């Protein structure tokens, strides 16, 4: 059975709409494989107040232009926290 892996601090899902950039903290990773059967880790991000965490699949990363970034100096604002 596969279990989520807790994410260390500093990992974020970066998304932009062309004007603004948002960084959502990654709270855990899900081991998976890509279309070539290579191992990858998919991110879980907070779903928002009173909502469960959300798994972002590989299509959600590529189709929406999201990227994974590591920024240990980024301080998450209280509005971004779950």
Characteristics:
82 residues, mainly beta, four-stranded antiparallel β-sheet, three-stranded antiparallel β-sheet, 1 helix, globular
Structural account:
The strands form two sheets. Strands 1-4-5-6 form a four-stranded antiparallel β-sheet, with no helix packed on it. The protein has a three-stranded antiparallel β-sheet with strand order 3-2-7, with no helix packed on it. 7% of the residues lie in helices and 39% in strands. It has one helix and seven strands, in the order E-E-E-E-E-E-H-E. The model has no long low-confidence stretch (mean pLDDT 87). The chain is mainly beta. Strand 4 (28-33) and strand 5 (39-45) form a beta hairpin.
Task: Write the topology of this structure.
Layout: E1 5-6, E2 11-16, E3 21-25, E4 28-33, E5 39-45, E6 54-55, H1 58-63, E7 67-70
Antiparallel strand pairs: 1-4, 2-3, 2-7, 4-5, 5-6
Task: Summarize this entry quickly.
The protein has 82 residues and is mainly beta. The chain is built from one helix and seven strands, in the order ββββββαβ.
Low-confidence stretches: none
Radius of gyration: 13 Å
Helix content: under 10%
Strand percentage: 35-45%
Shape: globular
* Number of beta strands: 7
